[in-house]
Amino acid sequence: MNTIKVKSLLFDGFLAGWTALFSLGVPAFWLVGSPRKPIRAATRLWVRGVLFGLKHVVGLRYVEKGRDMIPAEPCLIVCNHQSTWETLAALVLFPDVAIVAKQELLRIPIIGWYIRKSPMIIIDRESGSKALKVMLNQSREALAAGRSVLVFPQGTRMDEMEPIRFRRGVELLYSTLGAPVLPVVVNSGKFWGSGRLSKRGGAITVSYLPPIQPGMSAELFVRTAEAQMEDERSILP
User: Fold this and answer.
1) Which helix (H) or strand (E) is 62 found in, with range?
2) Which percentage of the chain shows pLDDT scores above 90?
3) Which helix (H) or strand (E) segment is 87 a member of?
4) Pairing between strand 76-79 and 181-186?
5) Burial of 37 by CB count in 10 Å (0-12 exposed, 13-18 middle, 19+ buried)?
6) pTM score > 0.70 for this model?
7) CA distances from 197 to 119, 158, 193 (A)
8) Which end of the chain has the lower number of beta carbons within 10 A, N or C?
9) Residues 212, 116: Cα–Cα separation, whole Å
10) Which residues of the chain have pLDDT under 70?
11) pLDDT value at position 1?
12) Which pLDDT belongs to residue 42?
């Protein structure tokens, strides 16, 4: 068995044990009415532990590029999707963020409960226009509460070499919410991609691009964001 696989298996064991600890918080939070802010803080603590395990067991860390681009006000964040890593790390990179996520995320043992109660914006992709309505309404509520909204415009995890193309729905959020959009590009698929059996050591780059202001046509917004993100993806290490 090679070193990469051994480290990956050790991390999986660490993750299982770390996650099990958070089962103790479920009844405690439930007894006090499942307060959202403390639950989000606990979820961020869990993610910090995951990132610690990745760094010290697997040797997988991350670096940030252009963090000063993040708007001071709540915004719509669009990020390419290559692995599970960015779904988790976003909770640390953007405290109190509301992530637009698929319903399957709630099935994760223990952490699915925390995600539901945070709450995140959970949609059923099979429900078509109903999913768009839920996404739009809950995104409005999140922004009004001072939380940024993160969406993966590709809809699902893609190979790291796959060009960035937005699926339907992101242009509706842009046109309706009237918030600045922060494009973010990651290269996590090189280390923890959907097609890899093991996690590899290295440095994931998180690149923040200049915000796109509201007011464009939906079509121009999509073309602009796709082009900026694709240009950045092509030059990341």
Assistant:
1) strand 60-65
2) 84
3) helix 84-93
4) parallel
5) exposed
6) yes
7) 30, 15, 8
8) N
9) 30
10) 1, 195
11) 65
12) 97
